[in-house]
Amino acid sequence: MTILVTGATGTVGRRIVAQLAARGTPVRALTRNPAKAAVPDGVEVACGDLTEPGTLAPALEGVTGLHLITFGGDDQAPLENGQELVELAAKAGVRRVSVLSGWDETSVEEALRAGDLGWTQLRCVEFMANAFDWAESVRREGVVRVFGNHPGAVVHEADIAAVAVAALVEDGHAGETYLLTGPEALTPEQRVRLLGAAIGRELRFEELSEEEYRASMRAAGVDDDLIEFGVRLGAEPPQAASVVLPTVERVTGRPGLTFAAWAAEHAAAFRN
Question: CATH topology of 2-124 equal to that of 126-155+181-243+256-272?
Fold first, then answer.
């Protein structure tokens, strides 16, 4: 049973690769740049691009499980070729698929719903890893600036990966949509305090006004659509964002990892 992981060098994909390898499951990591892929010993690396389905046939040879992402290219735009990707997977003999979905469904989910593959959808409120966006200001100023200080049940990327692995190697997950959260709902201010404790430095939290947020995003070169999306999330996040669910523990058999654990794991990235 060989499993192909797309997005294999990304935040979640690399965790899926590592967890599969640790189980002794044959795993193939798909990347556009194999020379730069850092994977565990024994993991096969395949060159391919989801935006160019013709490159995927060799990577799918002998594959029975597939982890899909729903975006591709340098701009990480939503994939528009989901039907072709799903047809290639079915033709190759893939039986199980996990797909990590964003806020909006894409052609990938649409094609999976219309097809016959056993697939499991993973949805997340917010990655704990989004805190890496704070790293530069923490190192430089000891401060985190955020628009909106609402609680969120952020989830550890290792937990997302663990649920994906379960869906790929175990029976009973096909047809499920799993909303994944961490074990607690924390405001950004609370997460900043936990991060400060992990790095041994008192950090300052500053809540931005909408005008300040817009100005900072424009200065960073963020396009208007993403700025508007960020404003909506900061002002009125979806109610589900703060609801803690037991999905990770139900699927994996262990409690979800806390943000304090994430902060301790990644403390070096926030130190000078």
Answer: yes
